[in-house]
Specification:
With about 325 residues, the chain is mainly α. The chain folds into 2 domains: about 40 residues, no CATH class; about 240 residues, Orthogonal Bundle (MetI-like fold), CATH 1.10.3720. About 70% of the residues lie in helices and about 0% in strands.
Length: about 325
Amino acid sequence: MTAIANSKPKNLFRRIDWRETLHLMKKNWSAYLFLSPWFILFLIFTVFSVSFSFYLSFHEWNIAESAKPFVGLENYIRLFKDEKFYQSLWNTLLFTGFGVPLGMASGLLVALLLNTKVRMQGIFRTLFYIPVITPLVVSSIIWKWLYQGDYGLLNYYLLKYGIIKEKLLWLADPNLAMPALIIMGIWAGTGGVMILYLAGLQGIPEELYDAAKVDGANGFQRLLFVTIPLLAPTTFYILITSVIGSFQSFAHIYIMTSGGPLRRTTVIGYYIYEAGFRHFEMGYASAMAYILFAFILMLTIIQMKFVKGDIQY
């Protein structure tokens, strides 16, 4: 072991030799040529867009007006005095607080069921995954028709079986619009969560279940003390990505409710769109986008601090 340690190069962290780097790039020019289209798109639509939106956030940038004066932190100060922003933040927290845990629970349940030896297992996995690969615009239009108050399928079957006495205006009722969107979001995201949990389940050694059986553990105890703890890394990853995705929700809310009755479904993503593309206040919308970024970053750091520390990889 000592010989191996001594054989390591001492200049592992030496300064970059730019001449050598340029020589290697020239030698492998064809690889960089094939990568260049993606790199150009990344520079234009990511690096430039993010940088320019940060610049816009310090200006009163109205598309319809020629004057675009520098206003400093005025957009950010205005943001913290905006009641509509606080309402959209609260709506986003509600959408995330109910949608993410329920979506993760449903994905785990489906993964547990499809991880067993059942007939037509592949077909069932495909059926549950189809909503994930279906364009969100298409899914939103389908669900909008299902929720339609006068001739939607949901009201039809609920009335047919006597579950409700009169038609419900799912997307027009302030008390039902948000739950309706949450249900649709769970349906659309369960397949993706299922795939990740299936991968995690198949990585758990069978020997651990056999040992638990020998110790007298029943099915629920094996789930509680073997499966769930060993799925902790997968759960952590799903939690982080689901929260980020939930805070960025826009398309299905725009299509299905357009902010909803009494702005009950106006989440931050929709409010940013409304400020930028309906009121043409690009500077104010950019400020909101950066506050949203900071909020997501803060939530991610909190989750990593309080959750990841308990995970054994």
